[in-house]
Give the backbone structure.
Amino acid sequence: MNYELDHTEIRDAVIKLCADFPGDYWRRCDREQTYPTEFVAALTDAGYLGALIPEAYGGLSLPLSAGAAILEEIHRAGGNAAACHAQMYTMGTVLRHGSDAQKAAYLPGIAEGSLRLQAFGVTEPTSGTDTTSLRTTARRAGDHYVVNGQKIWTSRAEHSDLLLLLARTTPKDQVAKKTEGLSVFLVDMRAVLNKSLTIRPIRTMMNHSTTELFFDDMEIPASALVGEEGKGFRYILSGMNAERILIAAECIGDAKWFIKKSSDYACERSVFGRAIGQNQGIQFPIAKAYSQMRAAELMLREAITLYEAGKNPGEEANMAKLLAADASWAAAEACVQTFGGFGFAEEYDIERKFREARLYQVAPISTNLILSYIAEHVLGMPRSY
Ligand SMILES: Cc1cc2nc3c(=O)[nH]c(=O)nc-3n(C[C@H](O)[C@H](O)[C@H](O)COP(=O)(O)OP(=O)(O)OC[C@H]3O[C@@H](n4cnc5c(N)ncnc54)[C@H](O)[C@@H]3O)c2cc1C
């Protein structure tokens, strides 16, 4: 079965759009660590960043599979959707748990591109993966909340108007379960930037526009609270399946890019008077990565089917992300090896994609934590942490 036949028109249109942003565009952004503003604007103008927003709010009302197809094609074309993918999944939290007033106030602007919801502030430097131990607090004071604390790895904050923020509203020692007492806020950063909110960029091994945020008595209106106070952890978790699925689709796109590059070059490059692709030492890693990618694609399909049927595909979405990230990394390795020295040269884009693909072993959730989830929640083994 060929899953690329899904959403064919959208895929074709995304391929066409991406043709205007070839390797040298991404290389320049990467070299200068600049945000791919023109690419994100083109994607927004075409309506793709509002693909999952309901038509009633100006979006395209498309299912998650369409979002996955869009992101896969961007990566398959050699681009990097990390500059904007978060809008697709953070928006879901607002859609599912936000009030009618919040949806009416923000979703139309997000759908048309005049308002950007690209930043998602969960991770903190001290607590790391242990989210319920986060230290950022939001204290209610009359008609507003006062936020204090710090976030790390809040990507795209400098290129976003809104921030979806997870903060503790009730101290951990005053709640029955550590997952309680956390709340989600939709923060309009424009009102507080460079006053009580400081954004500090972090340079990374790939171009990711990631930052640290510092909140210093940051006042936000009480109306910024999403859903009920104290239930934020549940709201964030409810968006995780979509996040895992969309990231897996990007990894599948990366794997396809690496595999095509590798198999084409293996046929073209002649050493010792014959194509290097005639050597099984070159063929096998590429064939193996292809098999891994196809298996991951099947799991991704399973996760999407369950998600779109209204089920909770926690197992499948996590496994799809795990398998797809492994497949893209295996394909990246095979590609560098196939290209030999040229794999390290900037102009081939391989070393850039190699650096970009490495992230998905760690973020948005690390491979270890997915394996722990499967061990505990699927296989019934004791919790390890
Ligand atoms: C470029 C980039 C962009 C990011 N963007 C965002 C963003 O926009 N918003 C956001 O909130 N976060 C973001 N993150 C954070 C990302 O989600 C975390 O880095 C990731 O979840 C790992 O957490 P950590 O870095 O705190 O590692 P730690 O929690 O410090 O863990 C370090 C290592 O130990 C392992 N480990 C920890 N506990 C266990 C355990 N119990 N069992 C086995 N292994 C364990 C982890 O898997 C990891 O490999 C981003 C990160 C990066 C690098």
Remarks:
- The beta strands are 117-121, 137-141, 144-152, 162-168, 182-188, 197-202, 210-221, 225-226, 270-271, 274-275.
- DSSP finds twelve helices and ten strands in the chain.
